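Annex B, item 7. Sequence and structure tokens for protein A, then protein B.
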Amino acid sequence: MKSSAWIDKADKYIMKTYGRYPLVPVKGEGCYLWDADGKKYLDFLAGVAVNNLGHCHPAVTAALAKQAGELIHCSNYYHIPQQIELAELLCTHSFADKAFFCNSGAEANEAAIKLARRYSREKHGADRYEIITAISSFHGRTMATVSATGQEKVQKFFDPLLHGFRHVPFNDVAALKAAISPCTCAIMLEPIQGEGGVVVPDATYFQEVRQLCNENGLLLIFDEVQVGMGRTGKLFAHEHFGITPDIMTLAKALAGGAPIGTMLATDEIAAAFVPGTHGSTFGGNPLVTAAGVATVRTILEDGILNRTEEMGEYLLGELEALQKKFSFITDVRGIGLMIGVELSIPGADIVKKALERGLLLNCAQEKVLRFVPPLIVSKQEVDEMLAILTGILEEIK
């Protein structure tokens, strides 16, 4: 079936929750996608930082195929070997002692909110329930995570929001300190804001945030849904800042494209969850956790982190060179292969022109081009992207 026919059918049957582009992907390999008409695209969006190992990575597809032939799903009333193995991998390579599995980043953040509140209630009493988050943050689409998100456009029309969240400017320790009250139980932040426009904080920001949490008996929650799993050149983005959280959430790239989320915590805090306090029917089932094990092992064992750092430095340098050439590029920032190019003009037309020329990009906050290619991207593929992008920018100049 041609792309146009699929799009017509989508218009008839699919709810309009996305402003979709006229692209119908049917095949992927590495850093490329092909649509239903056979056109090839260089993918620098990677499913919005999901396909960190590229499309259909052999280790992930083999793990999924093998597991699909053995056991796809069983209840969390039982012990699931693949889930246990993935939990062990994540805990032994992080600050955490325990993992809880679910199906998405929003669910992982929902679990973190519940755990923080329950732990604080048990330790400090019922009056400590507020969570401070950042303006321009993004934590998900459930009612709790919409309430936690510091973007009015995400919250609009869903009033009344869940009580108990306060929002302060990101990278502003003074504002954060002023927002702490006797009701505060936790601070929840993204190490780098993704949907907020690839915003990287000052080097000392999180050290001061960690100190504030320690001084006030607050939990520090890191939402690493987009920035974790090697995206910045380290397994977890907070490693760049020399501190650890009490709770961390992961999703997106954790299982190479299979739907999964997890919340990690220390033993002391995790103990607040007991049978009946939280759960997830599909969370951590054999299929997705088998994919997760393959993904994490590949990131750790195949030099992915070093490659990400190397390609990230190269891409950042080339984009900085473009900034000197085009006056409407006002800033280039990022770590590893999570890079934002801020413009003085809207970026939607650039994204559209790129699509027409076989390049997939994304625009955050209307004026920030977001580059989150697969971590396996080669210098040749980076150069291919730059050639297409430069041609588009030359037309605008």
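Protein B:
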Amino acid sequence: MSTETLTKWTIDTAHSEITFKVRHLVISTVTGKFKEFDTSLESDNEDFEDAQITFEASINSIETGNEDRDKHLKSDDFFNAAEYPKMIFESTSFKKTGDGEYKLIGDLTIRDNTRKVELDAEYGGTVVDPYGNTKAGFEVTGKINRKKFGLTWSAVTEAGSVVVSDEVKLNLNVQFTKS
């Protein structure tokens, strides 16, 4: 008879990245990332099903490779980092859908707007690193509509093209360390 215990995992920020992509002028894509974030995972089994996952990112850490664009994203036109300094996610479900594949469902809060999101997670495996730490890796992907979270700024070019698309693609490559 085995007794299940809750295993806690913390994010290895040196080996993780939180990125997003958004179409610009319909013809190209801008990639951004959050440099400061924290994520935790708690699981009572080795296959991670039903794990509890929390995530938060500092809006002021947003970086797109263009200082003016970063300032605009932090302004009230988009994230309003002064009033809403964090983006927060709390899982409500983490279900295995296939071999190493999961559906992650949870509540994402941006600018005080909370919406249910569904993300796909691919389990990369669990290994022990050269220092004896147990590590687990996941790639999480999905899409959100930025306007549903209060990021409503919009502009149209003279030719009628939208400057920034409503759809934002999310990509999180995360590595956890067993506590």
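Comment on protein B: Helices lie at 67-74.
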